[in-house]
Known about the structure:
CATH topology: Globin-like
Bound molecules: protoporphyrin IX containing FE
Radius of gyration: 16 Å
Structural class: mainly alpha
Distance between the termini: 61 Å
Strand content: under 5%
CATH class: Mainly Alpha
Shape: globular
Largest sheet: none
CATH architecture: Orthogonal Bundle
Mean pLDDT: 94
CATH superfamily: Globins
Number of helices: 8
Order of helices and strands: HHHHHHHH
Number of domains: 1
Amino acid sequence: MISQTPYEAIGGEETIRKLVNAFYLRVAKDPLLRPIFPEDLTLTTQKQFMFLTQFLGGEPLYSNVYGHPMMRARHMRFQITPKRAERWLALMKEAMDEIGMEGPAREYMYQRLIQVAHHMVNSPDDETTNHLASL
Ligand code: HEM
């Protein structure tokens, strides 16, 4: 029996490269996400390419260079609100549509991204903050 990694099933390097490019072009134009990202998204795009490669069972490109992913810890210096997590996921879905990803491998990847995105949330949405402040 041939067993494929999710990395292979989605189309490997070429697909991930296209995906991160399409995704960060959207991030660059998004009013909710743009403010917390660096001006130049080149390195961010490259890091995400490396991370997603290993996340899906490809070579451990990210860890080879940056060490243990510790993604939640690496996101702590940014305000990741539930709204930002939903927007991140929405833009990822749009990027997947744009590059023509489909089928069970895409669905699998997206479900795992939902879990990670929710795990990254470290701040309440503004309404909640205001609500608590007024108590
Ligand atoms: C939930 C919403 C998310 C927001 C708002 C967010 C935001 C950010 C921001 C602002 C950075 C810093 C960019 C930089 O300094 O270059 C970053 C880095 C990164 N994010 Fe996210 N992120 C989210 C979810 C995710 C998810 C779900 C993943 C993985 C599947 C992820 C993977 C990464 C990686 C690999 C980096 C680079 C870390 C490094 O500096 O080495 N992020 N993210």
